[in-house]
Amino acid sequence: MYEHSNTAFKHEIKEQCGVAAIASKSKASSxxxxxxxxxxxxxxxxxxxxxxxxxxxxxxxxxLAANVFDDKKIKSLKGKTxxxxxxxxxxxxxxxxxxxxxxxxxxxxxxxxxNGILVNAxxxxxxxxxxxxxxxxxxxxxxxxxxxxxxLRSSGDLIKAIKSTLSEIQGSYSFTMMxxxxxxxxxxxxxxxxxxxxxxxxxxVIVSESVALDVIDANMIxxxxxGELVEINQDGFESHQLFNKKHRAHCFFEYTYFARAxxxxxxxxxxxxxxxxGWRLAKEHPVSADxxxxxxxxxxxxxxxxxxxxxxxxxxxxxxxxxxxxxxxxPTQKLRDLTVREKVNPIKSEVEGKRVxxxxxxxxxxxxxxxxxxxxxxxxxxEVHVRIGxxxxxxxxxxxxDMTTRDQFIAHKNTxxxxxxxxxxxxxxxxxxxxxxxxxxxxxxxxCLGCVTEKxxxxxxxxxxxxxxxxxxxx
Length: 475
Ligand code: AMP
Description:
Layout: E1 2-4, E2 17-24, H1 29-38, E3 46-53, E4 55-62, H2 65-68, H3 71-76, E5 81-87, E6 101-105, E7 108-115, H4 121-130, H5 140-155, H6 158-168, E8 174-179, E9 182-187, E10 196-200, E11 203-207, H7 211-214, E12 219-223, E13 228-232, E14 237-241, E15 250-251, H8 252-258, E16 264-265, E17 268-269, H9 270-284, E18 291-294, H10 300-310, E19 318-320, H11 333-343, E20 344-346, H12 348-351, E21 355-360, H13 367-378, E22 383-388, H14 410-413, H15 416-423, E23 427-430, H16 433-440, E24 447-448, H17 450-453
Parallel strand pairs: 1-4, 15-24, 18-21, 21-22, 22-23
Antiparallel strand pairs: 2-5, 2-11, 3-4, 3-5, 6-7, 7-8, 8-9, 9-13, 10-11, 10-12, 13-14, 16-17, 19-20
Helix pairs in contact: 4-5, 5-6, 9-10, 9-16, 11-13
Bound molecules: adenosine monophosphate (AMP).
């Protein structure tokens, strides 16, 4: 069953997503639905739920969870176990690409929901094709499904087969998976993507972020450990620590931008972490100013921290129109420019005649900040200073954030002074990598900092071994 509720762009990228799994005494689908709504910030392009009701039944569609599902559709999915997915990609010209992906194999149907990127998927796909597997879906998850089926056929032991499968795939993954009614959560050996485990009145749950536990009144048991496979059922869970690496490689961008501020990931509150970043930013790049203005919504916690660290009062100088689509994924620069103007508007009475510090989480292309500086100047600010809670982004993310080409980054081609001029700001300061590490309370060896240091936690194989993930601008 598929449904279109809006038009998809044709870009070839596949990135951040949200995953969920439920094992319950009652119907799983409505729990999964609410979890997916809480994870909607991790993907707005498509959504899907698969449940086990003697066989796998699923419903997927392009659009937000609230648009794709209604009461009737949720009720029609009858099983007590199930998984769900919110999709970030804008490559979806076909709704079948929405997840959970259902792979029909000789050992049964496998439903898989994936957050992450497998960097050797193309290479494995070619090998599996030579062995006679017929690929019809054109996605990485099909590769995982066939690998698992092959291993399961030869070993007969599901846990062993999962371990062998994971030994062959490289990249980032937090999976939720369902096979013959059994439900699993799997986190990659470096813990690049978040995944956590909880308990609620009717059973157990695995989700990308803790906000999706809160929404169904589940208590967090703990994060799924890197390299761990967790099987949940209504009464408990079983853990299999499949891989033990010395280090982790958590994606720092989850903390600075991607995750919801009210989530807790790997023992850290995302909101408090952002506040610490803002506080450090104020120490690293002090400035004399009258007010600190957050760029809504992603810069709020950083700005609060900056205000605490600098003693400069916080003011709500920018208002956000919540009904305007995200600018970041707009296909052309012209559209991105226009949408920023529509999305954010200065409150003139707050800004007029003031020396303003604008604080945001990150600058990628510079579109958003350039437009906002311009608006704040037009609202008669006396000075406009810019402070950014992520170090200059210079290198693509191969492991799951939608930043895939070097040329995209304004900081790749320009010095800080050139960027300042380009933004027309009076001053510009980015948090340093050292400052970021202090705020995150992780050591460098436990983080993926690839997009700001160009050093990745795993070898990134050549392009031909990966699926196509390049953003193609249409200008
Ligand atoms: P830009 O206008 O390209 O500089 O975009 C920067 C803004 O987009 C930041 O303020 C973030 O809030 C947001 N952003 C950064 N990275 C991403 C991403 N990978 N996907 C969506 N939005 C992002």
